[in-house]
Amino acid sequence: MSMRTLPLLFLNLGGEMLYILDQRLRAQNIPGDKARRVLHDIISTMFNKNFIEELFKPQELYSKKALRTIYDRLAHASIMRLNQASMDKLYDLMTMALKYQVLLCPRPKDVLLVTFNHLDAIKGFIRDNPALVHLVDETSQQLIEAYGGLSAGEFQLIRQTLLTFFQDLHIRVSIFLKDKVQNSNGRFVLPVSGPVPWETEVPGLIRMFDHKGKEVKRTEFRHGGNYIAALKEGSFELYGDRVLKLGTNMYSANRPVETHTSGASKNLASQSQQSIAPNPLAKEELNFLAKLMGGMEIRKPSGPEPGFRLNLFTTDEEEEQAALTRPEELPHEVVNIQATQDQQRNQELARIMGEFEVTDQPRWSASKGDDLLAMMDEL
Amino acid sequence: MFRRERSIPLRGSAAALCNNLSVLQLPVHNLTHFGVVHGPSAQLVSAAPEGVPLAQRQLHAKERAGVSLPLITQVHWCVLPFRILLVLTSHRGIQMYESDGSVMVYWHALDSGDASPVQAVFARGIASSGHFICVGTWSGRVLVFDVPAKGPNIVLSEELAGHLTSVTDIASEHAQEQDPAGEKGKGSLCLSPQDCIADMVTADDSGLLCVWRSGPEFKLLTRIPGFGAPCTSVQLWQGIVAAGYGNGQLCLYEASTGTLHAQINAHARAICALDLAPMVGKLLSAAEDTFVHIWKLNRNLKNGCIEVEHCHGECVPDTQVCGARFCDPSGSSLAVTGYDLAEILRFSSV
Predict the structure, then answer these.
(1) Model's pTM, two decimal places?
(2) Which residues have CB under 8 Å from B310's CB, separation 6+?
(3) Is B289 on the interface with A (CB under 8 A)?
């Protein structure tokens, strides 16, 4: 698959994480200065020059486990603490949101516009800190340099690689269900109306030519959708109108979010698929992370600024309940990134492999949908 | 009009690749084989006429010790004069099996020699041409394998240069398609090597098409330049090249000259699969816009021009289609796969 995908994955997931944390910080009435501090710390860790430089090197995508570990670390880059259940939920929301955005991008290249939307919004969170804004701008510049000249074919490979990463994730997200962009079976709605992508024609026209290239016949056919011509192309510059709304903050102030997912539809079989094979390369991935993130300051919740716990659920009881029903194959603790832990990691992988069972793929039938809806009502 | 038939369940969902469904029709045995790529594995399913699944098998790409499972890019049955082989391409190389996937008869590791670090290395695009199997690669090179009538003595006989960007798909005209009246019988194989000379077309990420005459040495006949969008899928029927592109356009060209004869604004998203029902000149196009369209190709006998008309469109709701094939030579039934979908959808015309 494409070797250029990791920066797009990391930056967009990071952006979604910040949207969600920002909303929860406000919902939980965390004092403004503390909230700003948290976002500031996470953003400065995320855009650390050395980390970004490594990120942009051509490489394969990390495994889901390794990437999850990065975000565990990132979320704890400040005075804020998250319980495992909240961290799980945060990660579920982040990944499903990005899956939705990638899937619905009109053109493969538009994933770049999604990334710019995230970066534009991130700059909004730290606009009072010019040094940090500059750091984010530098990353935007690197994006332009790395991706600006890629062909449509290369972007298609990037898109396919991203979709492979998100394959078989069908976690239902309240805000998506409410907006009717996700069905009750966890699949996203793919609209067949609206503007076509830039550089695509509205379907319906057939033109026929003779040997000399002269048009000899023109007919129309009913294609079944309800499309209109593309309006305008989004900007791929440092600043500009991105036109595309995917990747903008859907958790804004006047849309109080029930960040409410039902974990019942986690697909155990395929989630374990990637992690069961004992992967010696995982050792390399984590060593690499250790090298980078070990160099970053981790705020300890002590001293004049006491830490606080953020809850991704509406109440503490919900969080506890969610912790009890977590699927077995997820790690119970944040994996400590130290060289000595590698053996532990391989043992952990072996343990997970022992617990792996093949489960049948769920059949999508009307009754299955009803069961899921009933479960949602009970939550 | 098409109606939904019974779906065939899959162990793993289909990956978001183009041309992600291969079908081997075996009417003599009342069986149809289906092949779908999941990711690091590919799934083969055999089904009876009503879609009742009979047997399943999973194949994996060959691993290198110490590295995670490589991803498969395509799985495809190649019908040759004296045998049928199943070919699997991945980020490591090319694997060839007996048609039921039971025994691997050949393995070719890709040479990533002059690839830059940022370049993904893989094989993609599979077609048989006479007694050759042609496979495309990331660099644009097309590998030509000479396949004997029996046994594992498969040899890389030629490397075709013509493309500068990654190959996406390859199509060729088989002897069966050159014999539409079916005098040699449905499902039967060629009786002698001379019956099996076939022409071939290869496509790449830049949208470039190369048209070849097969033989002991393949000869490049024409190049048809692209226009910015990748050509994701290609078919060849009676000297007509049908090409589907990443911007949803479907074009028909005269193979021998490269002249554009039809340009169809067929889909609102990238086309991911094309297939032919050669007996009746039907073409299907499937795209990420959730639609499958059926077209009728025709050569105007008076002026030799290629004509096309739309027959039918089918929407597969909320499904990013990634593979589609006709399931019988008359094009009255088809099968469809979609990204994230753990089943093969089947349709038949009413």
Answers:
(1) 0.85
(2) A206, A221, A222, B293, B294, B295
(3) yes
